[in-house]
Write a structure and sequence with these properties.
The chain has three helices and six strands, in the order H-H-E-E-H-E-E-E-E. With 123 residues, the chain is of the alpha+beta class. The model has no long low-confidence stretch (mean pLDDT 93).
């Protein structure tokens, strides 16, 4: 698969997940978009592990005022059933004000011919 094809898949995964987040459908987002052993690393917090941990984290983020999470995928590399992407992100409140922004690394994993989010590290 070409880098361009991998980038398109990566971007679509983020877009689908973030659309679900913005719509408040966190349960579907977590159930359909993440591996069972998802790991998310956010600076200044404990590592978030598993779907239950991600659900709690995203629910708390939404409750604290995060309304959207625009994300730009800039570089993508693939190796069999794994895809790695460099991302730029922002957490935005309901008025469109950026609360936090930064860069990170995302890892997607292919399971049963479906790409899922497997690990995300924010900086």
């Amino acid at each position: 698969m070409s880098e361009c094809e991998l980038k398109t898949i990566h971007e679509q995964l983020f877009k689908t997940a973030l659309d679900l987040f913005e719509d408040g459908d966190i349960e579907t987002m977590v159930d359909k978009m993440y591996t069972d052993d998802i790991t998310i690393m956010v600076p200044g917090t404990d590592t978030i592990r598993g779907k239950e941990g991600v659900f709690n984290h995203l629910t708390n983020s939404k409750a604290s005022g995060v309304n959207a999470c625009p994300c730009k995928v800039s570089e993508v590399f693939g190796d069999g059933n794994y895809m790695y992407g460099r991302i730029e992100y922002a957490f935005v409140d309901g008025q469109g004000k950026t609360m936090v922004e930064g860069k990170g690394l995302s890892v997607m994993k292919k399971i049963d011919d479906k790409w899922l989010m497997h690990a995300i590290s924010y900086s």
